[in-house]
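Milestone M4 deliverable, item 7.
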Amino acid sequence: MLKYFLFFVLFVSQNVIGADTLIKSGCSKDYPGVKWFIYEDAEGSRYVTKDVRSWECGFNRYLNLSMEKASGDRFNPAIVTVDYKDMLGRNEPWGMVHHSTTIGTAVRVGRDTVEIYGDGRVGEGVFTLGRTRIKFSIEEEPRCPKNGLLDCVGYRFLGPSDGFIYYGEDDNTLVTWELGILMYAPPDYFPNDAQMYEYPEGWDKWQRRVDEYNKVYEKSGVHIRYKLTEVWLANYGGLRDVETKADQLPVDVVLAYGISYEGTCGVAFPNTRFISGKPPSSMSRCSIYTDLHEIGHSVGLAHGPENQAYGAVGYIFPEFGHGWNDICGNYDDLMSYGYNKAYHTNSNLMCDDIFPLSGLTPAGYRDISDTSYSLNRVRYDVSLINDESFQEDEVLKLVKVQARRIRKVIIN
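Output delivered:
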């Protein structure tokens, strides 16, 4: 009975598998890594199939990882070089599907390179591609600390004692500031108490406006580009209200547009420090230059000591973090009240670099006005106000130090 049962199972199994029978198999002598199979079908005809990537017959790949740069942070990555070839030494295509990293975020760049950026955590990490691993480290970003009244470069500095993230005077890395827009709407526009709605209909208009901001920054040598991230309709009565609403948006900077204080084109609270979840905010209702002027105030820029009204030196860098009139001929820094405020002063550029045929004189002076340099010095810290790469532990959120904000309204 048992023999009959086994025969029945084998007979059924062969029918399920199919009528084709494997007659013979082996490894190719002329082509390493190729295994051949001879089958016979139900009619007695024979045919051959091949596995051109048979590990049994010697197929192999070479995968080696090496560190081009062994440490990184959130802006300056650790760099892994990938050497991936088949057994004949030919470069093969590869992807990031089978990769992992214990800390940070890995991004493939180019043909043979992976960059690993920090995610807010620091320490040793392991990057894995396929079955191959390599160690790297993520460190804190370098900073330019304060020593008395001066920072590490020797400029008067009114910011935090540990300074801002700093990679040296020659650093020209572009940094993104995520921008949120609050377009003013009167109270009766809102059917409930929300007083704030997403407004996708305004996106195209604001994208064009943001493109103009970026053109101004590009020609001024400001290493920041705005990324339009949120557009909302909102009802607000003043800067404090704007600030409260701004804290709800996952952005780095907020501009409220549509109304301002009576008799002004815009107003702002200046900030000297920047902290996660607290985007600098301002109000504007005029041109793109007003928008940038008010955003400038919110990140520490002032009008300048010789300004036509409300004169003040920079809130973070008192020597040069403010506007000035007639730096490039009749062109003025846009933080000033000049009639031709169309750029940010920059001591590293000539006027002719910004305004053709305007002369080979400096477009800014580090002891007078250099608002581009001031913006560049705070750009990394502002970009981390909305740091999506790493979610803070809820306990840490309760003890982190809040930003120090100067509750002086800058009227323009």
